[in-house]
């Protein structure tokens, strides 16, 4: 048995013992979550070490249910006396907690049955000298780009986390993930004409990572391209979102279909289930079963299994993101999207999500744009989740006669997400890199506020 598998088995035994103790102490039902993580990171600036950080943590949480009352407690002390006290405190708290008509464990029929391996940990744990060298190489590649005059630093890291979850409905499982990262932030220009940009890459397998040199070079080239930006005249125009920022649009969509907001009536999509939200042909996929995915898992944190599913299918909204409580509140079933920390009850969250690519290349997507905006940076959080109103600071490049031209900055783009989703057209350049991914997208009819 590997060290990872051995530690997972120990964690599963720990959470099983904790919920058994809770039952003996008077709990009608209970669940327990164990989480551990460790990470190591190194940062350099101008070739010299600037910060090094090592972190390790272990946490254990218990949720006790007495009828429709629940209480959550957590600890980082795993001594038996502490855990016995933890159980007693949780049961006492549950007895006086207000009733929650929707709390409870899942139906046993919904529980995940078969553990699955998504190849989420390569076992490579680079040490500090290796991380410092990767950070130095990345930063050196950025500063070697002609026009780069300074650096905000480079960094490299690796991390590992494991969770084990058990409940009295009959589930006990564990999962783990590791990842590697490199980032660089470069500065181009001088005095008041300086611009900065960055690149960041992370993968679960070191062998899948781009080289530190390529990360640094891209950061430097991006910074130089932003030099001498101009302002745009205000008006309505097509906007093309670079993949670095287009995934944020999908993030706003995921927030709008979160069952907690829908149940509260605070989502601008709360009445749109089963309706066309995007244009025909558009699909958005939630895939918890992706190999080497950052949010891959074979169970959610209520033990529920979930398949890969289309959240948007041919433009139509097919589902909410639901845990057991929000599902009961909405008269539905959990979609297997429960997430939680050790000290709180579950709430819905997505897994690996991507917007399916379109048929046109990015060049073809913008070929007919006489004047438009290619956005590479978004600033601020001007998004109203209740109305869908959208207003963000932006920077990027002018699109002139179908081609990316000079840089622009100090502008605001605005619209409403309902119309933006309906008008969204994806390019064919999807790359799966993080937890939420999207290709280049075009949205016509947005408002630009410039000079």
TrEMBL record:
Pfam families: PmbA_TldD_1st, PmbA_TldD_2nd, PmbA_TldD_3rd
Domain Metalloprotease TldD/E N-terminal: 30-94
Composition bias type Polar residues, residue spans: 332-344
Gene3D superfamilies assigned: PmbA/TldD superfamily (3.30.2290.10)
Gene Ontology terms: cellular component: cytosol
GO biological process, one term: proteolysis
Region annotation (Disordered) ranges: 332-357
Occurrences of domain Metalloprotease TldD/E C-terminal (ranges): 234-450
GO MF annotations, alphabetized: metallopeptidase activity
InterPro entries given in the database record: Metalloprtase-TldD/E_C (IPR045569), Metalloprtase-TldD/E_cen_dom (IPR045570), Metalloprtase-TldD/E_N (IPR002510), PmbA (IPR047657), TldD/PmbA_N (IPR035068), TldD/PmbA_sf (IPR036059)
Occurrences of domain Metalloprotease TldD/E central (ranges): 130-227
UniProt family annotation: Belongs to the peptidase U62 family.
Protein name: TldD/PmbA family protein
Native species: Ferrovibrio terrae
Lineage: Bacteria, Pseudomonadati, Pseudomonadota, Alphaproteobacteria, Rhodospirillales
